């Protein structure tokens, strides 16, 4: 076997998935909520940029504000339902740092 084939073997510990049947629902929920939180933060930043550029009407700003507040509340409810803290959604990407900005 050449070096590349050896490094891609499924037996390698970094390719193993430790799927615990007792925590799989919570772990999957954590992953999905992390992605939703990432998108929510990106949309929020885009809204702030557009407000600063004066490209939104007052009515649009009001609608976006209410929508973002509701989404944030829904995220808090889902985190509570799955016993997750907001910090649990910030995945560690190793040398790249964390997925979400720390506040």
List the helices and strands and how they pair.
Layout (H helix, E strand, L loop, with lengths): L2 H5 L16 H29 L5 H24 L22
Percent of sequence in beta strands: under 5%
| Residue windows where pLDDT falls under 50 for at least 5 positions | none
What kind of assembly state do the chains in view correspond to?
A: single chain
- Ends: how far apart? 47 Å
- The H-and-E topology, N to C, reads as HHH
The major beta sheet can be summarized as: none
Written overview of the protein:
The chain has helices at 3-7, 24-52, 58-81. The protein is an all-alpha fold and 103 residues long. Helix 2 (24-52) packs antiparallel against helix 3 (58-81). The model has no long low-confidence stretch (mean pLDDT 80).
Summarize it.
By secondary structure, the chain is mainly alpha-helical. The chain is 56% helix and 0% strand.
List keywords for this structure.
0% strand; mainly alpha; 56% helix; 103 residues; single chain
């Amino acid at each position: 076997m050449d070096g590349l084939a050896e490094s891609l073997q499924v037996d390698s510990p970094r390719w193993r998935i430790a799927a615990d049947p007792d925590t799989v629902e919570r772990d999957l929920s954590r992953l999905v909520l992390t992605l939703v939180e990432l998108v929510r933060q990106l949309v929020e930043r885009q809204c702030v940029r557009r407000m600063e550029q004066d490209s939104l009407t007052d009515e649009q700003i009001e609608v976006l504000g209410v929508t973002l507040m509701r989404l944030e509340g829904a995220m808090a409810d889902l985190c509570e339902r799955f016993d997750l803290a907001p910090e649990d959604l910030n995945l560690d990407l190793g040398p790249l740092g964390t997925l979400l900005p720390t506040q």
